[in-house]
Design brief:
This is Transcriptional regulator. By secondary structure, the protein is of the alpha+beta class. 58% of the residues lie in helices and 14% in strands. The chain has one domain (7-97): Arc Repressor Mutant, subunit A. The chain contains 5 helices and 3 strands; from the N terminus they run αβααββαα.
């Protein structure tokens, strides 16, 4: 649970599950509200835990791409379950408020 804690990690993993290999700047633009420094920190933690792989391309300027490792892809079921529960919970709250 500690590994996935915080506001951003599940969103980052979900983004990588959805789009596969992604450049840093594309992820920064796509994840609403995250700062570059926070994205970098979260990606480093996920990389240290072998959830995310980082590839530095030999381009000018240097391009960095991130993707889930095979082990990271095993989180797909967890992310799907959380997403499904979230949709169900939202429906529950709206139904209750009616």
């Amino acid at each position: 649970m500690i590994l996935l804690s915080g506001k951003w990690k599940i969103q980052i993993i979900g983004w990588l599950l959805l789009y596969g290999k992604v450049r840093f700047m594309d992820m920064l633009r796509g994840i609403d509200g995250i700062a570059a420094k926070m994205l970098s920190k979260e990606l480093q933690e996920l990389e240290q835990n072998e959830i995310v792989a980082r590839t530095v391309m030999s381009t000018k300027p240097i391009t960095v791409e991130y993707e889930l490792t095979e082990h990271g892809k095993t989180l797909s079921g967890v992310i799907d379950a959380i997403s499904t529960w979230g949709v169900s919970h939202r429906k529950f709250l709206f139904k209750k408020g009616s």
